Amino acid sequence: MAADRNYTTQFQAGLGMVQETIALLKLWEPGTSPSALADRVIAEGLFARNTARRARNLATEMFAPRYLKNNGEPALRLRRFLDGHLVHEALVQLFFLQTARAQQILADFVRDVYWPKYGAGSNAVTKADAESFIQRALDEGRMAKRWSESTIHRVSGYLLGCCTDFGLLEGGVSSRTIRRFYIRPEAILYLTHELHFSGLSDRDVVNHADWQLFGLEASEVLRLISNLSHDRHLEVQSGADLIQISWKYRTMEECIDALSQR
To answer: What is the Cα–Cα distance from 233 to 248, expressed in whole angstroms?
Structure first.
């Protein structure tokens, strides 16, 4: 589930693009390739205010890497929520999860810059914070080739913009205010089961790095998962050397159906 190690500028094609993602999920059909989806987007004028090139980039550079991996499994799952009753904020958090998985630069920025500043009680994340993060990444060889100063400047803005789209930040250009950000119970249930059905042990589910995107350590994850037992979604037993989860849902689809009916 991890993104590629090297940092790219690919996410500049759409940043968070929440509404565009919803529109593309509705338009996409299983088996449709990214290029065929782009052709359909243009033919149907889905993003009429954008140029054909921009519309194609949204489909192939933004949507496909995030949602069409593994034969479109993320798209198949998330589009099931569009006709259900999942809270919009929870859906946006799942979009954030998929984007961070596809774009390592965003995942590391959130883990290494956003959450430490959040935890320290800072009020804002600045463009200078983002530029310093990128400079460190360049020094560590995280890019395939050296980025120019103009690219560093642009991508620092993209990082702030993407975090704003997903509700972690708000307002500003050179500095954006940190928002109070908590993972939704619906997103906890989804991620817990997705990790479980990927074949991980119960302990590995609790310790998975994806939780760090939401600022959570393993002890907090265990507490939040245990809270799901109140609604009888699962049962958790834990002790000094034990984490054992009894799973109610036999497939990811059953979990999604339960979430859609909440």
So the answer is: 6
